[in-house]
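Human: If only I could read backbone structure tokens as easily as an amino acid sequence. Take your time, and here it is.
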Amino acid sequence: MKIDLRKAHDSIEWDFVEDMLYALKFPRRMIGWIMQCVSAHAYTLPLNGPSLVTLKDGEASGLHINKDNSDIYMNEVAAADEQAILSISGFKKGSLPFKYLRITISYKRIFNVECSILVDKLVARIRGWGAKHLSYAGRLLLVKTVLTQIHSYWARIFLLPKAIIHKVESICRAYLWSGTKEHHKAPAVAWDKCCLPKNQGELGILNCYNWNIATLGKYIWWVANKKDCLWVRWVHHLYIKQHDWWHYSPTTNSSWTWRQLCKVKALLEPGFVHHNWLQAPYSATAVYKWLSGDHLKVSWQPFVCNRLTLPRVNFINWLFIKSRLLTKDRLAKFGVIIDGVCYLCGTLQETLKWRGRSLLHKKLILAALASLVNFIWEGQNKCRVENWVPHPEHIRKRIQDVLSDRLTSLRMERVHSWDMNWVKEVGLL
């Protein structure tokens, strides 16, 4: 067995590197040193005075085989041949299962206990965020960019047990709605809805199960297209043989991992057949969208996805549109309070019912309306907790300040002059 670690400098034109160093005005003497180091097979450096250390090709980059941590996995190999391989390579014989980057690799079934590290990682991240008291929008960002991405790494390797996927989704859901790893109350919006795309009026959170299936679909694509790699040749020789891949069914003595991949194939076969996925490079994103299904787009999506509106305001307005804000009429319905009169007007019941040029004008109006809803909601909470009613002029000034700050932070080079004049006339700039 021969292991070759191909280094970056094996394919670099050294003349080009030297020309670039001269173009960047490096000192001539330093350029000579650099070129001697990167192009020579061995060189000597002084270390602590007169002591000399000689570095041979490959040592400077650190790309060496760590024989202490390298294993060879063999099956049905004669004892004499096995011993010869171990003696020549200097490696030790490994056994299944083993862990690679803390992920269990095995041909046998993966149980929940092997995947508990994934759950532990999510919980550890949440513990580090618990004291930050983030808004809904802040927690949503962490769920989408950190928690689901930790799961995404595991999802690319094998089909996760459904119990683990449910636990991951439970942790993400709890953190979104409560900021902790556990949430014992009913969420404001069902998790399946939260995982739908933004253009369908939802949050666009990753659906863990669908993404797991979509990422494993690349192996189905590899086998179908007979990609030139050892694993594909091996499964064709051992399992598929002369059978047609799309009509192949695994035998009972096949490995657990292979049977799981065949289940993924059965799920994705309609897409491969009817959408010609085999004729183009595999795209997990496209397959994920197909698995998510087609849903009607909503007309109010710009109201809750407006760049001129603060993200936390967008989230509150999303709850507002879906009638999920805990207004007094809903709290009274749940038996939490008795009095349902609005704190601000003092006469009517507090409910979510309301009546309701250029693109910049429309966006600013929507942003102002979104901010108004948010600040009225904040005012009602202040009335409930602090017994203080904000003055309408105070709310108007806060809306003006928010829109002014958002306009200042965004690029305004492409805004027409008449739009700029209008913005200045209303006092936003």
Summary: Strands lie at 42-46, 52-56, 71-72, 92-93, 98-100, 103-105. The longest strand covers residues 42-46.
